[in-house]
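Lab notebook, design round three. We kept the backbone fixed and only want residue identities now. Task for the bench partner: fill in a sequence for the structure below.
Input structure tokens:
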């Protein structure tokens, strides 16, 4: 599956996921940060801090240049700044095909696909938490759902996602994606 995805395709998925998530985070205000998310142990502020750490790692992996102001304490503002920084990097062809994490080589396309899945699904978490009617776009959800088993199996083994939630066979593709990663689309 992942072998069929070129680094450029993977960066395209990551760019689409960032665009979606940026749309959901755009209107987040500080008074919404204590709100509970679909991730039962996290409030919105904690979720955004988690995604911000992931964005920082993705920026490092793809050699994104620029900085996010360390003085900024609003996690939504940090998200917007890091997402913009990453968007600049993924809009160019990848400069390398392998990165090293903890001494192990990882294909840049795998990192980009994993980042796309995480950012899109957490964008959905933000939308749900802030009561926005912003499902993951069907085309993006379809492309990520096709690749998700490669990422989700290992992530669930390490308990990075909750177990899948059953959904009807005719459920929308975005609902199937978030359900596979332990979120109840209902």
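Proposed sequence:
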């Amino acid at each position: 599956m992942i072998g069929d995805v070129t680094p450029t395709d993977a960066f395209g998925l990551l760019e689409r996921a960032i665009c979606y998530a940026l749309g959901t985070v755009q209107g987040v205000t500080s008074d919404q940060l204590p709100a509970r998310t679909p991730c039962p142990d996290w409030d919105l502020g904690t979720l955004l801090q988690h995604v911000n750490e992931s964005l920082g790692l993705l920026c490092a992996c793809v050699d994104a240049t620029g900085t996010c102001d360390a003085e900024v304490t609003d996690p939504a503002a940090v998200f917007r700044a890091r997402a913009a920084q990453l968007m600049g990097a993924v809009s160019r062809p990848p400069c390398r095909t392998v990165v090293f994490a903890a001494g192990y080589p990882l294909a840049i396309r795998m990192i980009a696909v994993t980042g796309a899945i995480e950012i899109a699904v957490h964008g959905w978490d933000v939308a749900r938490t802030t009561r926005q009617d912003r499902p993951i776009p069907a085309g993006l959800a379809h492309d990520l759902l096709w690749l998700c088993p490669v990422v989700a199996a290992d992530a669930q083994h390490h308990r990075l996602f909750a177990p899948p939630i059953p959904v009807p066979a005719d459920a929308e593709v975005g609902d199937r994606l978030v359900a596979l990663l332990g979120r109840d689309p209902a």
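Keep this in mind before ordering anything: DSSP finds six helices and two strands in the chain.
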